[in-house]
Amino acid sequence: MALALCDPRAWFTLLLGNPSLWALALALAGLAWGWPSVLCVLKLPLAPLALLGAHDRRRWLLALAVVGAASVPFWALWTDYAATLANAHSERGIGYVLGDWPVALLVLAGAASGRASREGMPKFVSPVRASA
Length: 132
Known about the structure:
The chain has 132 residues and is mainly α.
């Protein structure tokens, strides 16, 4: 995870608290609880991270239905958002949109490796007192 901080864009994300930071936090929460990762769909370039929480399928689908139902009244705004993204031009080109992925992948790799190492550890067995 410390490797992610070598990227200057990661410092920019951390200091300014842009939406990518929230999407990444929701993706990490999705690894633990499942349903929070659904909210990653609100940050379109990081929307595929929403699938990280699909391991708890029932809760994830319920959360997806709730987010979908909550988005229906704002349909006109979503179409405006899509038009804005289509018309946006940056000197960085596609790197502007995909620029958050390297940091996201490094942080998620660190979280996944920590999770894998915890799952491989033997379970702690608490001592049971023998009744006299």
